[in-house]
Amino acid sequence: MLAALFVLTVRAAEPDPAVLRYTLPADYKWVDSKEYPGLKSVVLYGDPSKPGPYAVLNRFAAGTFSRPHFHPNDRVIVVVSGTWWMGTGDKFDTSATKPMPPGSSAVHYGGKVHFDGAKGEDCEVIIFGIGPATATRVGER
């Protein structure tokens, strides 16, 4: 009888939207990168194109890498799934990258050149930063 009473008292309630906002994964609006086929992103918080804090979830398909670039502000990255690979410098070389398994975090310092992506498996990372989130690509030497 106690179990039946427990089942009757457990129910889902919608949180007050004045207190919080949430989005379930099925409702994400993924956007394909124009520059890097195989890279998709969804804005979780804020607007990366405007001044202020933002959070973006990036999904790299296996074999997708950015090319050497930098951002004007520091960014904090947390690996959510898969293995994310990151390298530094303006020479693009995926063999000179560090593997970052799920749960890892990294900081990309503003104005410093780096590249990153996925090798043999898809990966997802959350990027936290201060906008505007521009990227300046660097020519290889």
Describe the structure concisely for a colleague.
With 141 residues, the chain is mainly beta. The chain is built from 1 helix and 11 strands, in the order H-E-E-E-E-E-E-E-E-E-E-E.
Give a verbal description of the structure.
The protein has one helix at residues 2-9, and strands at residues 31-32, 39-45, 52-60, 69-70, 75-81, 84-88, 98-100, 105-108, 114-117, 123-131, 136-137. β1 and β2 form a beta hairpin. It has a single domain (36-137), classed as Jelly Rolls. The strands form 3 sheets. A 6-stranded antiparallel β-sheet has the order 1-2-3-10-5-8, with no helix packed on it. It contains 1 helix and 11 strands.
Topology:
Layout lengths: L1 H8 L21 E2 L6 E7 L6 E9 L8 E2 L4 E7 L2 E5 L9 E3 L4 E4 L5 E4 L5 E9 L4 E2 L4
Antiparallel strand pairs: 1-2, 2-3, 3-10, 4-11, 5-8, 5-10, 6-7, 6-9
- Strand-residue proportion: 35-45%
Residue ranges: pLDDT <50 for 5 or more in a row? Answer: none
- How many helical elements? 1
Q: Strand count, sense and closure of the main sheet?
A: 6 strands, antiparallel
Mean pLDDT: 92
Strand order of the largest sheet: 1-2-3-10-5-8
Structural class: mainly beta
For this structure, the CATH topology is Jelly Rolls
What is the rounded Rg?
A: 19 Å
Can you say what the CATH homologous superfamily is?
Answer: Jelly Rolls
Distance between the termini: 74 Å
Briefly, what CATH class?
Answer: Mainly Beta
The counted number of beta strands is: 11
Count of folded domains? 1
Instruction: Estimate the helix proportion, in percent.
Output: under 10%
Principal-axis shape? globular
Oligomer: single chain
Order of helices and strands: HEEEEEEEEEEE
CATH architecture classification name: Sandwich
